[in-house]
Amino acid sequence: MFAPTLSKSALAAAVFLALAGCKSDADRAEEYFQSGLALIESGDTDRAMVQFRNVFEFDKAHLPTRQTMAELFMTQGNPRAAYGQYLAIAEQYPENFEARRALAELAFEAGNWDEFIRHGTVAVELSAEDPRVQAISLGLKYREAALAEDDPALQALTAPTETLLATLPDSNILNRLLMDRYARDGALSKALERMDVLLAAAPDDRVLYTQRLGMLGQMQDTDAIEVQLRDMVKRFPGDTEIQRMMLRFFVSQQKLEDAEAFLREISDPADENPGLFVNLIQFVSQVHGEDAARVEIERAIAVNPNPNRFKAMLALMDFQAGEQDKAIAEMEAIVEQSDANEEDSSGFKATLARMLVNTGNQVGARRLVEEVLEQNPSAVDALKMQASWQLQADETDAAIANLRLALDTAPEDVQAMNLMYEAHTRTGETDLARDFLAQAVEASGNAPETSLRYARVLIQEGRLFPAEDVLLPALRQSPGNLELLTVLGDLYLRMEDLPRANQVIDTLRRLDTEQSRNVANGLQAQALNQEGGTEQAMQFLEELSSGEDAGLRERLVLMRARLQVGEVEEAQRMAQALVAENPENLGLKQALASTQTAAGDLDAAKITLREVTTAAPERALDAWLQLTRIALRQGNPEEADAIIEEALDATNNHPNVMWAKASRLERIGDVDGAIGIYETLYEQNSSAVVVANNLASLLATYKDDADSLERAWVIARRLRDFEVPALQDTYGWVLFRRGDAEGALPYLESAAAGLAEDPVVQAHLGFTYAALERNDEALEQIQKALTIAGPADTHPQIEKARAEMARLRALVEQ
User: Fold this and answer.
1) Whole-angstrom Cα distance, residue 436 to residue 418?
2) Cβ(745)–Cβ(721) under 8 Å?
C-alpha cells in the first residue's frame, strides 16, 4: 500500500502545524503580543488590536498586552475601553498600583465617585509616595470635605494642592480641585486659569465650556462671554442649545442686529427642518413687526419643499390680528391639502383646534384632537391638548397617561413636562411634580421662563439655596433678564445675604432702564430696612422722592411706605397732594382712599372710591372690593351685597368679585349658593389652589353624600404638602370625612396651631380626637373652639361642636 503524496504547500503547512504544536500557550501569546507591537510601530493599530486580542486566547492575564491596549485606547480617545482594560488588570493583579491609579483618574474625570473612592483608596495604600497618587489622595480628601460642607478643611487643602501642581501642572485632578476652590472663594480669574489648562487638554469637552461660561457670567464680563459663545458655536456646530444661548445673549445685551445676523447665518428657508428659520421669523416679528415677518414667511413659502407649515404661520398671524374667520378658513384649507400621513398633519389640526378653542368652539376642537389621535396615537400636540382638558376636568390619571406617551415621543418637550408638574401637583405628589419642573429647566437650556417657574416653587417651599442654583444658570444664559434679577435679588434678601443682594441691585442699576431702576430702588429699600431698620429705609425713599429725577412713582412709593409703617396722617397729606396735581389719575384716587380708610374716615373713602367706579366701572376692581369691605366694616351687609351685585355687572363677573359674593353667601348660610360660585370659578381655572381649597372645604363640611366627598378628595389631594394652616385644615378635614382620622390628625394639629383663633379649625381637631377616643383631649379642644366662637355663633360646625361636647360629657359622667 502506498502512502499519499503531499503537495509542497500542504507539506509546508503540515510542518508549521507540527512546529506550532510544540510551542507552549505562553510562547504563542508572546508571539501575538510582539506581532501587535510591530504593527503599532508601522502605524497599523487596527490589526495590532486583532493580534492583542489573540493573546488572550492563550493567556487571559497577559499583563503587558492589557497595559498596551489600555494606553492605545487612551491615545485613541476611548477612555471607556481603556477603563475596561485597567479594570481587568486590577481584578487579575490587585496589587498593581498603576492600574488602580489609572482607574481612579479615569473615574474622577467621568464623575464616577464610587469607583474613584474604591480604586483611589487602594492606590493610596499601595503607593502613597507617587505624585499622581498624591493627587488622587487630595481628591479623596477634597470630596469628603465638600460633601460634609467643611469649608475650613477645604481651605486647608488649597496649599498642598498648589504645591503638588508645580510637579504635575497638567493633572486633571489638581486643576479641577483648584478651579473649584478658587471659584468658591470668588477668585474667578485664578479659577479661569485652571479652567483653561483643563480645556487645553480636552478642547472638545462641552461641559467645561459651559462651566467657563458660568464663571464669565459671574464676573459679568460680557465681552468675554460673547467671544466664548461665538467660539462654542463654531466648535459645536448644530448644537441647538448653544445657538439658543448665543441668541439669548445678544437679546439680553440689546444687540438685536447681531442677533438677527446670527439667526440668518444659521438658518435656511429651504431647509426641510426649518426650526431655525422659524426662530428668525419670530425674532423679526418681535423686532421689526408683523409686516417684516410676513415677508420672511412668503420667502420660505416660495422655496421650502413643504410650504404648508409656513402657510400655517400666516394663518396664525391672521388669527392673532383679529381676522379669526379668515384664519380658520386658511387652516381648514391647509388641513384638507395635507396628507393624513404627512409629518405635520397632526400639528396643523392641533393649531386649528387651538383656534377653535379660542373662539369658543370646544366641540369642534375636541373632534379635531380625537381625529388626530385616531390617526396617530402618539401625536404630541394633540396629546398635550387632551391632557390639558383632562386636567381641567380633574381626570388626572388619564392626563398623566397621555403626557407619558407624549414624553415617550418627545422626551425634551418642555410644555409636556410643565403639564406633568401640574398633574402630579393635583395628586399631591409634590416631589415627583418638582422633578418634572427640574427636567423642564434642563430641557429648555435654563430658559428664563421655565427657570423662574421652578425657582418660585422652590422659594414657596422655603428651599432657598436650591432656588439660587436654578436662577444662576438661567441668569448666565440671559445676563440682563430683569425678571430673573428681580427674583434673585428678592431671594438674597430672604436669605439675609445683603452683599449679594447689593450685587444684584448694582447690576439692575447698570441696565439703566426705568423699570430696572424701579426694581433696584425697591430692593435697596428692603435691604436698608434689613440692615439699618425702618428709619434708614424711609430716609432712602424720601431722598428718591425729592431728587431731581423723582417722578410720580417715587412719591407714590414713599406714600405707601409711610402708610405701611403707620405714618397715616403724612401718607394722607401726600396722597391728597398727588391727587390735586393729577386729578384724572384713578390709581392715585384709590391710593388716597386707602389712606382715608387707614385714618378711619370711611365716608370720605367711600366718596373717593365712588369717583373711581363711576369713571371706569369695568376697570375699578380693587375699588369695588374696597367699597364692599368698608360697607361690612360699617355694619351694612345689605349695602355690601348690593355693591357686589353692582360690581358683578360692571366687571362682567370678574372672578375676584364672584369670590367676594361666595364668601358673603357662605357667611349668611347660603352654602349651596357659595358652592355653586366656587364650582363656576373652578371650572374656569381648576389650577387655582385657593379656589380648590374653598370648594373642597365646603363640600367636605356641608355635604354627606359619597359623590361630594369623593369630589372633595380629588380636589383636595393637591393640598397634602402645603404648610399653610388653612390648606392643612381642609386636607385634614377631607381625610377625616373619608374615615381616616389617624391620617388627618397631624394636618389638623398643625392647622389648629397656626389658626389658634379660628373656632371651626379648633373644632375639627376636637372631632378628630373624639374619633380616636382621646376623649379628654377632645373635650378640652372642643371647649376651646366653643369659647372662641361664643354663645351667639350658630355656624353649623359650632352647633355640631356643642352636640359633641354634650355627648363627650355624658360619656365621662358614665
Assistant:
1) 7
2) no
* pLDDT one-digit tens code per residue, 242-276: 888 888 888 878 788 998 898 888 888 888 777 78
Residue type at position 672: D
3-class secondary structure for 325-368? HHHHHHHHHHHHHCCCCCCCHHHHHHHHHHHHHHCCCHHHHHHH
Name the residue among 436, 429, 461 with its Cα closest to residue 450: 436
Q: Is 313 exposed, middle or buried (0-12, 13-18, 19+ CB in 10 A)?
A: buried
How many whole angstroms separate alpha carbon 184 and alpha carbon 189? Answer: 12
Strands (E), 285-432: none
Instruction: Encode pLDDT of 632-646 as tens digits.
Output: 999 999 999 999 999
Report helix, strand and coil shares of the chain as percent, to nearest 5: 80, 0, 20
Crossing angle of the two packed helices 131-147 and 97-110, in degrees rounded to 10: 40
In sequence order, the 6+-apart residues with CB closer than 8 A to the CB of 414 are: 440, 443, 444, 447, 450
Q: Is the dihedral of CA 16, 22, 25, 30 positive or negative?
A: negative
The residue among 716, 698, 699, 719 whose CA lies nearest residue 707 is 699
Rounded Cα distance, 444 and 418, in Å: 11
Looking at residue 273, what DSSP letter applies?
Answer: S
Q: How many CA atoms lie within 13 A of 709 on its CB side?
A: 14
Cα separation, 640 vs 811, whole angstroms: 45
Task: Please give the biggest Cα pair distance in the chain.
Answer: 138
Pull the grid cell for residue 185.
Answer: 472663594
> Which is nearest to 177 in space by CA: 207, 146, 208?
146
What is the full DSSP assignment across 113-151? HHHHHHHHHHHHHH-TTSHHHHHHHHHHHHHHHHHTT-H
Residue 279 cell numbers, joined: 426662530
- Identify whether the C-beta of residue 748 lies closer than 8 Å to the C-beta of residue 765: yes
3-state SS assignment for residue 783: helix
Query: Which cell numbers hold the place of 519?
Result: 426694581
Please compute the mean of the pLDDT values over residues 160-188 and round it to a whole number: 90
Nearest CA among 450, 390, 457, 467 for reference residue 415: 450
- How far, in Å, CA of 103 to CA of 478, rounded? 39
Grid coordinates in use for 307? 410650504
How many residues in the chain? Answer: 814
Across 393-420, b (16+ Cβ under 10 Å) vs e yields ebbbebbbebbebbbeebeebbbbbbbb
| Residue 517: exposure state from Cβ atoms within 10 A (0-12, 13-18, ≥19) | middle
User: What is the structure's pLDDT at 22?
Assistant: 52
Average pLDDT over the chain, rounded to whole?
A: 87
Do 36 and 51 meet the contact criterion of CB atoms below 8 Å apart?
yes
If one counts every other C-beta atom within 10 angstroms of the C-beta of residue 575, the result is: 26
With contact defined as beta carbons under 8 Å apart, do 159 and 125 qualify?
A: no
Q: Which CB contacts under 8 angstroms, 24+ apart, belong to 66-73?
A: 66/92, 67/98, 68/33, 68/36, 68/37, 68/40, 70/102, 72/40, 72/45, 72/48
- pLDDT band, very low/low/confident/very high, at 583 (cuts 50, 70, 90): confident
DSSP 8-class letter at 718: G
159 burial (CB, 10 Å; 0-12 / 13-18 / 19+) is exposed
* Cell of residue 154, nine digits: 477645604
* Count of Cβ atoms closer than 10 Å to residue 260 Cβ: 17
User: CA-CA distance, 138 to 144, in Å (whole number)?
Assistant: 10
pLDDT digits (tens, 9 = 90+) for 412-452: 899 999 999 999 999 999 899 999 999 999 998 888 999 99
Q: Please, what's the b/e burial string for 30-50 (b: 16 or more CB within 10 A of its CB; e: otherwise)? A: bbbbebbeebbeeeeeeebbe
